[in-house]
Design goal:
7 strands; Nucleotidyltransferase, domain 5; alpha/beta; 2 domains; 272 residues; 9 helices; single chain
Length: 272
């Protein structure tokens, strides 16, 4: 069966390229060697090819064949070095890229491919078909030497300060399937002016309203570990018309069972 035209690799890359071309570049035009579009596409290509040095890989390919994949597949004319790429990408606000995940998910929904992520709640007040969204944090940078104002920090048992960058991710999953679909992420950062260090739970509190705004009618069940099982977060989920299944460890939440019961008692096996 031929793939739908809107879901081919070329169509997906075209969506990315169109979005990247409309992102304003704050740099002076006479000092730009690598366009913002080419840099963003190169960053995506680095993740796509999973190569430690994209520039070196593409230079070798260009030397052997006269052209490289970045030109033929991604439409990139000039490839920045790894250091230059990081410097340019650091200046792009994540908010400018946020329209992409819901736009790409809308494509797979229209094609009917999103149905493989649906699960059925067979009975109870919440009976019906739902998409399951799991919340979890993941580190994408860690160092004991390099740091920036947005770094999270913690001290290990030997007194060494560790610096890291973390995102809280909302990912579509389905039990029994190895496939996942990222819906949205929220960075855990310390540059918002608050003295207290940001945390994964606070990032989730920022992510949830945006997730509902991006998908206002999507039937969702939100899942998460013990970290998210707190009354304020549960109240936020309810306010956003979201069902939930959260791990609740008695050792860390001795009083939470009574709190949840006071909110709305559930029958055995029902979804909150």
């Amino acid at each position: 069966m031929r793939p739908l035209q809107s879901l081919t690799l070329e169509a997906m890359i075209g969506t990315l390229s169109s979005t990247f071309r409309h992102i304003p570049d704050p740099r002076r035009a006479d000092r730009v060697d690598y366009s913002l579009h080419d840099t963003l596409m190169s960053g995506f290509a680095m993740m796509f090819f999973q190569h430690p040095s994209l520039l070196e890989c593409q230079r070798k390919m260009h030397h052997r064949r006269g052209r490289c994949n970045l030109e033929t597949i991604f439409g990139v004319t000039a490839v920045p070095s790894d250091t230059q790429m990081r410097a340019i990408l650091d200046g792009v606000a994540p908010e400018l890229l946020r329209p992409l995940p819901p736009a790409l998910f809308a494509k797979i929904r229209r094609a009917g491919w999103a149905s493989e992520f649906k699960s059925t709640v067979p009975s109870g007040a919440a009976q019906g078909e739902y998409y399951t969204v799991m919340l979890d944090g993941t580190d994408y940078f860690h160092s004991t030497h390099l740091q920036c104002p947005g770094c999270l920090h913690r001290t290990d048992g030997e007194g060494h300060v560790q610096y890291r960058h973390t995102v809280g991710a909302a990912t579509l999953v389905k039990a029994g399937s190895h496939r996942v679909w990222p819906l949205d992420v929220e960075e855990v950062r310390n540059d918002d002016g608050h003295a207290k260090q940001d945390c994964e739970l606070n990032a989730a509190k920022r992510l949830i309203p945006r997730l509902r705004q991006e998908h206002p009618q999507l039937p969702l069940i939100v899942g998460g570990d013990d970290l998210y099982c707190h009354e304020p977060f549960i109240l936020q989920l309810r306010a956003q018309r979201l069902h939930y299944m959260l791990v609740c460890q008695p050792g860390s939440h001795r009083e939470l069972y009574a709190e949840v019961a006071a909110l709305a008692p559930l029958g055995a096996g029902e979804v909150g």
